[in-house]
């Protein structure tokens, strides 16, 4: 007779009575695979799940193909082990299926995990939460990007999409330096991007409002608001509020940059994190404009670099982006669902 219990817990079964099965989609460059396999084996047995399946990403395919292969095996959960780009690609592929997504933070940014307040550097805790945690519905942001040849392609993103300084910073980032010193590699890239005096000439429309025109240095559209180093760029953004939060940076000199730094580092990073502190937030400054809504359309006067969740996505002449509320199911520790 087969014993269907492990460590005192009943076997976890799906809708048809079969034992639940997970898959791990992993970036081999980012992870310690033997260590992950050891912990997964212990946790799947303790939680009563079946044998986990394994799918490797490649440089040419950061996660979509591996995820589709996993889904074809009728898995119940996909654990994604990789950086922000891998998480984005896997989420894009899994969003149309009844499969939950668990995060094993393994990169420099780990931006979605940060915004969900998940543990970043504890392999055992992350895997344990995947097999024993709860499901949480979060929003998925979608974007249609129009290219120079009028071709339009569609992608998902979980954290932010950016034009201007944001995208140029990524283009200037040294990947080898990033691998050695992490997010500090962006400092050099920011300095290089700031030397670029070209501004974006944009026309944008938010929901049903009238179309507006302006010049901006940077445009960032966020599904959630926190970056590395505890920087809160979009203080009102939440990953499950059904809204996009957009910031338009329009600095005209050193004074303007000082205003922006003060707002983002001090007010957003310190004051906005407490109820008392939020009372002392100042009004919007001219160099930094926040808007929010469900749909955002923007055209630029010339092709500009765009980034999605920290990865370059080429040049765009226009975008249309919107939020799909509760589209993605993610696994979180059982005690954190409130």
From TrEMBL:
Name what cofactor the protein needs.
Mg(2+)
Molecular-function annotations in GO = ATP binding; kinase activity
Q: Which domain of life is it from?
A: Bacteria
Q: Please report a single Pfam family linked to this protein.
A: DAGK_cat
Q: Is Acyltransferase included in the keywords of this UniProt record? A: no
Gene Ontology BP term (one):
phospholipid biosynthetic process
Give all residue intervals belonging to the DAGKc domain.
Answer: 17-147
Protein's UniProt name: Diacylglycerol kinase
